[in-house]
């Protein structure tokens, strides 16, 4: 429900202007894309580095051919050949598991769980990856213990390794500042009486895409 328009905010002209999911989601999308762009362009300043990174190419091939084996031959898969390609791919993946997940799920359930872990770190292989017979037996007997052993430690979970890189850390701080700005914009929109889909008598404010959440069950806060 949007038309590409370079003169419009975010490059899109919404068919329905008072559409909270789209309006707030575009704020988050742009913030995520800028953070990803800073990160990718720092480590991959040219096309050759993307093409030569065999681990990156193997990851993208696995996403397409194993993660979505039923769709592996579709023509719409992006080609990973440039930094811009990688930026678009990563932004899409991050958006789906953060903003989109928050909007679709957090407003529906009265509870949610959060494991303080970083998905890019695992301390051991999952039991299905070249399993030893003993490991597989342990997993079948007490799967929760094996999973906890795989998850990062509390120290690993709270101290991202990239924070030690000055450029990347600065890029993340800019991203974090943008999220705080988005929080204020959404709050302002929720108090704007002209926006009838999120403000008014009997209308609940649209909080699903607020970046932050207070302690407890709030139905707000985007996974980061």
Please render the helix and strand layout as text.
Elements (H helix, E strand, L loop, with lengths): L1 E3 L7 E3 L5 H24 L3 H6 L1 H14 L15 H24 L26 H9 L1 H8 L3 H5 L7 H25 L34
Antiparallel strand pairs: 1-2
Keywords: Dioxygenase, Metal-binding, Oxidoreductase
Pfam families: Lipoxygenase
GO molecular function: metal ion binding; oxidoreductase activity, acting on single donors with incorporation of molecular oxygen, incorporation of two atoms of oxygen
Structure characterization notes:
Helices cover 51% and strands 3% of the residues. By secondary structure, the protein is an all-alpha fold. It has two domains: 17-117 and 165-224, Lipoxygenase-1, domain 5 (Up-down Bundle); 119-159, no CATH class. Strands 1-2 form a two-stranded antiparallel ribbon. Helix 1 (20-43) packs antiparallel against helix 4, helix 1 (20-43) packs antiparallel against helix 8 and helix 5 packs across helix 6 (143-150). The longest helix is centred in the last third of the chain and has 25 residues, at 166-190. It comes from Nelumbo nucifera (Sacred lotus).
- Could you list the spans in which at least 5 consecutive residues all have pLDDT below 50? 110-118
Strand content: under 5%
Global morphology = globular
Give helix % range.
40-55%
CATH topology of the largest domain: Lipoxygenase-1, domain 5
Q: How far is it from the N-terminal to the C-terminal residue, by CA?
A: 27 Å
Structural class: mainly alpha
Roughly what is the average pLDDT, rounded to an integer? 85
What integer value in Å does the Rg equal? 20 Å
Strand order of the largest sheet: 1-2
SSE ordering: EEHHHHHHHH
The number of helical segments is 8
CATH superfamily of the largest domain: Lipoxygenase-1, Domain 5
Q: Biggest sheet: strands, sense, closure? A: 2 strands, antiparallel
CATH architecture of the largest domain: Up-down Bundle
Report the strand count.
2
